[in-house]
Each structure stands twice: as C-alpha cells, then as structure tokens.
C-alpha cells in the first residue's frame, strides 16, 4: 500500500512538472518574435526592389548638414520584404537608435497601377504593423504625395502609435532643371486632369508638359530622356501633381540604321549629335549609326 502511494505521488509530481513545462513553452511561444505573413504570401507579392529615404512630410528635401531619415529597403530576392532603419547623415553630432526591423509583405490590394502592401509581426512580444502604398507604377493620376507612402504602427504609451512617412523621390520642386530617364506612358487623371503624357522612371511616374513638336515625338512605351524644370499642376479634383516642363527630349528610334551622313539641305536628327550618341547606343537596342 505504501508503495502504491509512493508511485501515485511520483506520477502526480511528474504530471505537474509536465503541465508547468507545457505552460512555460506556450507562454514563451506567445511572446516570441513571429511574422504574420506567410512565405507563400510574401513570395506572391513581388514588390519592386529599391532603397529609399523616408521623411515625415511629402516633398521633403534632405538636409546635407544633418539628414535625419528612415532608410527603407524593398527586396524580392526569394520573398518580398521591407526593412526599415533609422539613420542620420551629414556632420551633425546626433545619435540615432537604428531600431532595425524587417517585415514580410503581402499584396493587400491594387488600384489603377498603385500596389498596396501590408505586413505585421511581433518583436519582443510587441505587435508591429506596416502598410506601404507603392505609386511607382500608377497610371490613372500622377503621384501626389510621394512614390512610396509608408504607414507604420508600433508599440507606444499609452497605446500603439501610427506614423506616416514619404519617400524622397529625387526630383526637386520649384523650378530646378532636372533630367529624367525612363519609359513614356500614356496616362489619364480624375476628371481628365492630366497632361496625358508621362515618363516612368525607376522610382516614380511624372507627367510631362509638351509643346506641339514634342507631342509628335511622344510614343507610349518608348525609352526616353527628358530635360526640363519641375512644376506643380493642380485642377478641381487633383492638386500638386508633379510635372516636368520639357525643354529637351531624346526618344529611342525604332531598331535599324540611323543615317547621320551630312549633306546639302540635310538636317540631322538630334540623335546624331556627339553628346547624344552614347545614350542612344546604351539605351536603344537594335539601333546602329551610319556616317
């Protein structure tokens, strides 16, 4: 009888220990780092890769002496991810806590070329969420705020804190002369408020303001280089649409031979100039010069 009681107490103690271990494992699992986006979802998202600086306001310009920003790296090596790190550049003596974090991304929705990604994870048991509005391939209307808009929700006191940040897109506002390279895209806007012609670079879609001669050279889908000044266009439905007032334009010709032989009463194309030939040869497949 004493032996039976001893066996009973040993078994009970073992069961209690097993339950304690199980509870401990479950608690640890619930607080562990985890990503709510599956590998399959992230693999299907196919985000456009690139590195960007994010600021707290649209159209912000980096401060060369003290550039405090968030660095965003979008990758699609195997599955789509967004990595954010706090950073500072320039000569200011300010310490910034990097706070690196990486989200897997799922494609949440699309709207006329704009792709919206979302992700959520747990870091040290705390929930983090991200929403990325990617306007780099938008067709219906030009990007108003930024090529990329990032909304991130992080733990805070007394509750979660959501911040919005906007990509620095490279082309300054306010009359500065810039050169944009990319592909011509025929576009449309809300209420018809669009020039109808845009250039898609690696980071954004910018409307083009063209004169009659330039309009004749515009061909949807053609690789091109456009030089001019940045302006903001507004209408009844849309405001502060970034546009390039084109002063000079170079458009890839169709594949074949380009006759640049001078002669009487021959007006050579600007494609034949010594300054433009290297760009044509590097960007226009199948085009060959004859002199």
Hey, roughly how much beta strand do the residues contain? 35-45%
Q: Characterize the main sheet.
A: 10 strands, antiparallel
Can you write the helix and strand succession as a string?
HEHEEEEEEEEEEEEHEEEHE
Integer count of domains? 2
Distance between the termini: 112 Å
Structural class of the secondary elements? alpha+beta
Number of helices: 4
Total beta strands: 17
Uncertain segments are: 1-30
As a percent range, the share of helical residues equals 10-25%
Shape: elongated
Could you report the average pLDDT, rounded to the nearest whole number? 83
The radius of gyration over CA amounts to 28 Å
Molecular structure report:
This protein is α+β, with helices and mostly antiparallel strands and 291 residues long. The protein has 2 domains: 39-167; 177-283, OB fold (Dihydrolipoamide Acetyltransferase, E2P) (Beta Barrel). Helices cover 17% and strands 41% of the residues. It contains 4 helices and 17 strands. The strands form 3 sheets. Strands 1, 2, 3, 4, 5, 6, 7, 8, 9 and 10 form a 10-stranded antiparallel sheet that branches. Strands 11-12-13-15-14 form a 5-stranded mixed β-barrel. Strands 16-17 form a two-stranded parallel ribbon. A hairpin with a 7-residue loop joins strand 14 and strand 15 (241-251). The N and C termini lie far apart (112 Å). Mean pLDDT is 83; it is low at 1-30.
């Amino acid at each position: 009888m004493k032996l039976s009681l001893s066996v009973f107490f040993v078994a009970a103690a073992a069961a209690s220990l097993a339950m304690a271990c199980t509870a401990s494992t479950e608690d640890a699992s619930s607080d562990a780092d985890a990503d709510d986006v599956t590998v399959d979802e992230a693999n299907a998202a196919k985000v456009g890769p690139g590195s960007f600086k994010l600021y707290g306001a649209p159209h912000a310009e980096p401060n060369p002496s003290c550039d405090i920003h968030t660095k965003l790296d979008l990758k699609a090596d195997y599955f789509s991810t967004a990595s954010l790190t706090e950073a500072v550049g320039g000569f200011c003596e300010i310490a910034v806590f990097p706070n690196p974090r990486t989200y897997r991304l799922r494609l949440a929705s699309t709207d006329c070329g704009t792709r919206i990604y979302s992700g959520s994870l747990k870091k040290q048991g705390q929930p983090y969420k991200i929403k990325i509005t990617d306007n780099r391939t938008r067709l219906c209307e030009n990007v108003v705020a930024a090529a990329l808009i990032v909304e991130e929700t992080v733990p805070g006191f007394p509750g979660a804190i959501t911040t919005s940040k906007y990509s620095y897109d490279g082309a300054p506002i306010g009359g500065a002369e810039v050169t944009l390279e990319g592909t011509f895209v025929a576009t449309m806007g809300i209420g018809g408020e669009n020039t109808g012609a845009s250039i898609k670079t690696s980071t954004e879609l910018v409307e083009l303001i063209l004169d009659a001669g330039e309009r004749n050279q515009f061909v949807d889908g053609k690789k091109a280089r456009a030089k001019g000044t940045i302006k903001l266009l507004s209408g009844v439905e849309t405001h502060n649409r970034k546009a390039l007032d084109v002063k000079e334009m170079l458009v890839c010709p169709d594949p074949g031979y380009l006759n640049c032989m001078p002669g009487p009463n021959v007006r050579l194309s600007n494609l034949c100039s010594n300054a433009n030939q290297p760009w044509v040869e590097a960007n226009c497949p199948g085009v060959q010069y004859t002199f």
